[in-house]
Amino acid sequence: MSDNGEILCLSEAVKQINFLRRHIMRIYLDNAATTRMSRASVDAMLPYMDAVYGNPSSLHSAGQAAAEALSGARRRIADCIGALPKEIIFTSGGSEADNQAIISAARIGQKKGRKHIVSTAFEHHAVLHTLQKLEKEGFEITLLDVHENGIVWPKQVADAIREDTCLVTVMYANNEIGTIQPIKAIGEICREKGVIFHTDAVQAAGHLSINVKEQNIDMLSLSAHKFHGPKGIGVLYVKEGIPLTPLIEGGAQEWGRRAGTENIPAIVGMAAALEEACTHREDNAKRLCALRDKLIAGLSQIPHAILNGDAADRLPGNVNFCFEGIEGESLLLLLDDKGICASSGSACTSGSLDPSHVLLAIGRAHDIAHGSLRLTLSEENTEEQIVYTVEAVKEVVAYLRSFSPIWRDLVSGRREFMIK
Ligand SMILES: *Cc1c(COP(=O)(O)O)cnc(C)c1O
To answer: For domain 40-279, is the CATH number 3.50.50.60?
Structure first.
């Protein structure tokens, strides 16, 4: 072989190694952004992309086979959350479910002259941006403080509700810092006061117990890709008797509440994923909490680092830290080089220079909020991966600080540490 050929071979080998490092030896710790589909979910979907391809609205047998799959999936999903099949509307995901829930409650309120909505400062943008749109229409929005631990108190909700309040929307668990909200108590208050209660349960599904009847929930949003189901499919649960405003007009699918031919493969895949997640929920949560706490303990050893959100009342797989004197984006890139997929916050804000609205809502200063790291676990993560990740983060944080002018000022005392 010529020299040239050998060099080519070598560069091919390096490419191969880099490929392996990036794609196979990867440690995926961004499960709040999206998850890998479970085998059960993929397997459930396949026949509906192939053998059973009818349109559920068609009267012939091919259509009826699809209609049966649709109603079966609807019933199984309803069972998982303590709802009736008729109370389950399929949407394109969590964002659409949030939009439709809020718009529908607003239209119901508007008819009665009630144009006040209560929510929190750290909701997902699918909620916040919909509320901003309504504000431009003349609705009044109260965003409740979530305190330094990232938890709203039921009493705040009770105090904020007025005669003209038409909706309370508070997420079940936060997507950035994982904190769990007292939704059952909030639902009870809303029920007493006759106000519709919606909760974005996208992060909670599969990790926390959901029973819409026991938890006094009128509307609830789910998204399959957050619990190992396919992307682009979600659920809006709506309590019987509450009329929905369609966001998509057209055919009579979903009892006229959401037009468009149903995405049968995705719906069936979502049902399989949700059932699987709910069946193993308690065991998974126990294992994830142990891994989470190990990761938190490891990262807490880094000087001038702080955990964001309550240490106990948080999702089993959520870890979120701020490190003083570094910049989150460089941290993510260097971790990626070490094979770790992490996030600085929500997938929606990454890429923009604004600090996370969630971290600002819990009172982190702008500079501190810029140095954030979110690691979100799944059932697939192992203890070895956690050990490796702790070491990698320690190394990268120390490396970034070694040439950070802010860090130099902090260490020399020219500037005061905000994280002790
Ligand atoms: C991911 C997410 C959404 C959006 O769901 P999509 O299915 O991606 O539209 C909404 N709310 C929360 C809390 C989320 O984490």
So the answer is: no
